[in-house]
Write a structure and sequence with these properties.
It is a single chain. The chain has 5 helices and 5 strands, in the order E-H-E-H-E-H-E-H-E-H. It is of the alpha/beta class. The protein has a 5-stranded parallel beta sheet, sandwiched between helices.
Length: about 130
């Protein structure tokens, strides 16, 4: 079963540190493991309440950033996963490109539009 990689800030977590409830409810409909990805340092981790998330939260504290393919290589190694074992949605176009460059099936999630229908379609089509 594939793991769903979830972008933290500007996707799963709102600017005020609360969880985007409708997105959370959508993700809870899938029995798959989830890992929330961020580049947050300790100060940002606390500011956005990332320690309150019930799923594992992965950060490299900006070393490297998610725009660097090395971030995803380290993540996959840390969780003993292969690129084909995961799907990912991300609000940053550059980070989306970076994840794709290591073979991760990735969806650009426009956090201004919050198109959960398009996200659900991506998840459904990539979990099978």
């Amino acid at each position: 079963m594939k793991t769903i990689l979830v972008d933290a800030i500007n996707a799963y977590v709102n600017d005020d540190g609360t969880i985007f409830r409708q997105l959370h409810e959508l993700l809870c409909t899938y029995p798959n493991n989830k890992v929330v990805l961020t580049s947050a340092n300790e100060e940002q981790f606390n500011k956005f309440n990332l320690g309150q998330i019930k799923w594992p939260v992965f950060t490299l504290e900006h070393e490297p950033e998610k725009t660097d393919p090395e971030y995803y290589k380290i993540l996959l190694n840390e969780y003993n996963l292969k690129a084909e074992d995961v799907i990912y949605f991300e609000h940053s176009a550059d980070a989306t490109t970076s994840a794709r460059s290591v073979g991760i099936s990735t969806h650009f999630y426009d956090h201004n539009r919050r198109d959960l229908g398009a996200l659900k379609k991506f998840i459904d089509s990539n979990l099978s």
